[in-house]
Specification:
Layout: H1 2-23, E1 43-55, E2 65-79, E3 83-94, H2 99-103, E4 105-120, E5 123-137, E6 142-144, E7 149-162, E8 165-182, E9 189-208
Antiparallel strand pairs: 1-2, 1-9, 2-3, 3-4, 4-5, 5-7, 6-8, 7-8, 8-9
Length: 218
């Protein structure tokens, strides 16, 4: 009788265990959850740009529109956590094949600016401003501010499209003060504003600070 009772208990336990196991969900193979991309704008960058320069004022009816190309170097620091502060130096060589631009104009443009932007993911929207310089050609009769030093302001949008690579579209305004033209007797003085508007399309290669992850978390 005792043996029969023990056998009955064992069979009941096996039946209950099988029933419980059948109710458990079936688990598939374990897979790693992909980590989201982490975009980090902190670092040093170097790049080049092309674009156009347009005089803010017409000198003697001449529309001073020129092609330009050049390069830039800078550094950014991301903080708080989506704000980006940086400093950039750039220089643009302007096309002076047009006789009007050669006779009078800002042949090359340079600047050293600070910039402040807001980043969301791979996109950075920023404003900039600072010191500007121009290699200026003036003919006989122009006096006063030679337009070699001034200020610049602007802004743009930059997009990080691959690891360490970004492209940007930027507007920059340059102001180099006023220039006076003094004619022969009878003396007539005319004052012109020496300023430039530029549109630039740029490409940057970004080096991150030592010990920090790459731009996309690689």
């Amino acid at each position: 009788m005792k043996k029969i009772l023990l056998a009955t208990v064992a069979m009941t336990s096996l039946a209950l265990g099988s029933s419980y196991a059948a109710d458990l969900p079936v688990r598939g193979p374990m897979t790693a959850t992909p980590m989201p991309a982490v975009y980090n704008w902190s670092g040093i960058y170097i790049g080049g740009h092309i674009g156009g320069a347009f005089a803010g004022s017409d000198f003697f009816g001449h529309d001073d529109a020129r092609f330009l190309a050049g390069g830039q170097i800078g550094a950014d620091y991301q903080f708080a956590p989506n704000w980006v502060f940086g400093i950039e130096a750039n220089y643009s060589f302007a096309d002076t094949n047009d006789s009007g631009s050669t006779f009078f104009g800002n042949r090359n443009l340079g600047s050293v600016t600070g910039r402040l932007g807001y980043a969301w993911g791979p996109t950075l929207l920023y404003a900039k401003g600072g010191y500007a310089w121009a290699d200026t050609s003036h003919p006989f009769g122009f006096t006063g501010d030679q337009g070699e030093s001034g200020y610049t302001v602007g802004g743009g949008i930059e997009y990080m499209f691959a690891q360490n690579w970004s492209t940007k579209l930027e507007y920059q305004y340059y102001n180099f003060g006023d220039i006076a033209f003094v004619s022969a007797p009878p003396v007539v003085v005319n004052t012109f504003k020496n300023d430039e508007h530029t549109i630039k399309l740029g490409l940057n290669y970004r080096f991150n600070w030592a010990g920090m992850p790459g731009p996309r978390g690689y």
